C-alpha cells in the first residue's frame, strides 16, 4: 500500500484495515524458503502477489487505456503455481525474480482427507474453518466437507500486529502451530462450490454485526 494512502487513512478517527500496509507473501508467509534453506521436501513457486497479480494487471490495463502511468511496475508473468520435488530443482532464474517466491509445499493430512484452513474475521466477529479435500493440493471445487474449529491465538496476534480488521487468513497446522501462507483483506466467494458459498453467505450475515461493532470501536 503506497505511503500516501496510509497517511490519508490515519487522518480519520476510524478505518477498516487502515493500517494494513503489505500483504505480499514476502511480508506475511511463514513458509518462505531461500536457495540456502536446510529443507529437503517439495516446494511451490508462487507469485509474490495475491491471486497471481491479477488485480494489479487489471489496474495496469485500465491505466494503459487512459494513457496514464502504470500503477504497478513489476507484476511478473501470469503463471500457475509450480511444484518442484526439491529446492535443487527450482530454476536459477526464479531466485533472481522479485515477483516470485518459493515456499515449502504445505499439506496437512487428516484421517478424513487433506486439510486446508482459513480464518475469516470482521472486527470481533470471527470464524475458523477446516476444509477437507481428497487431494493434497486442494481447490475450492474439490472440497467435500467443511467444519468449524477454534481460532489459533497465534493468528489473532498476527491480526493485531498487521492491523487487520477485516479479511481472511489461509493457513495449515504443523506440529500444533499455524503456518500462515496467505492474507487477504478483500476475501471473495468461490462460486464453484455450493457448500463453501453457503458458508460464506452465512459468515457475511455475521460480519454485518462485526461492522456495527467495529463502528462502535470494538477490536479483538
Summarize the structure.
By secondary structure, this protein is of the alpha+beta class. The chain has helices spanning 3-10, 25-28, 54-65, 92-95, 153-162, 194-215; strands spanning 32-33, 43-47, 82-84, 100-104, 108-110, 113-122, 125-133, 145-149, 166-174, 177-184.
Structure characteristics:
220 residues; alpha+beta; globular; D-amino Acid Aminotransferase, Chain A, domain 1; 6 helices; 10 strands; six-stranded antiparallel sheet
| Cα radius of gyration in angstroms | 18 Å
Beta fraction of the residues? 25-35%
Estimate the mean pLDDT confidence: 87
CATH class of the domain at 107-220: Alpha Beta
CATH topology of the domain at 107-220: D-amino Acid Aminotransferase, Chain A, domain 1
Distance between the termini: 23 Å
- The shape, in one word, is globular
CATH architecture name of the domain at 107-220: 2-Layer Sandwich
Tally of separate helices:
6
> Which stretches are low in confidence, meaning pLDDT under 50 for 5 or more residues running?
none
Supply the CATH superfamily name of the domain at 107-220: ATP-grasp fold, B domain
